[in-house]
Specification:
The protein is mostly helical. It has one domain. The protein has a two-stranded antiparallel sheet. α1 runs antiparallel to α2. The longest helix is centred in the C-terminal third of the chain and has 35 residues. It is rod-shaped, with a radius of gyration of 18 Å. The two termini are 24 Å apart. 5% of the residues are buried.
Length: 85
């Protein structure tokens, strides 16, 4: 885990190993899987169940944001790794 001390970030070397890339990639895949689960649940749910559909749509939107942000973070880390090579 990274700890900040003044302007120095201890643990920053951890970001240079492949482990964070694997972890972030896994998180992105998990968010994408959640989006698919919520989509499937929405397909199965009767249209008349508006309150539950509303909750599922909000959960799906949150999972989509998580997937987008984790993919963006993954791209930034991979770009940084290419630049340092």
């Amino acid at each position: 885990m990274m700890a900040f001390r003044g302007s120095r970030c201890e643990g920053a070397a951890e970001l240079e190993s492949p482990e964070p890339v694997n972890s972030i990639s896994s998180v992105a895949q998990d968010f994408s899987a959640l989006v698919e689960i919520f989509e499937h649940q929405l397909e199965l749910l009767p249209i008349t169940d508006g309150e539950t559909r509303s909750h599922l749509r909000r959960a799906k939107a949150a999972a989509e944001r998580g997937a987008k942000l984790s993919k963006k973070l993954l791209g930034l880390i991979q770009s940084r790794e290419r630049q340092s090579s």
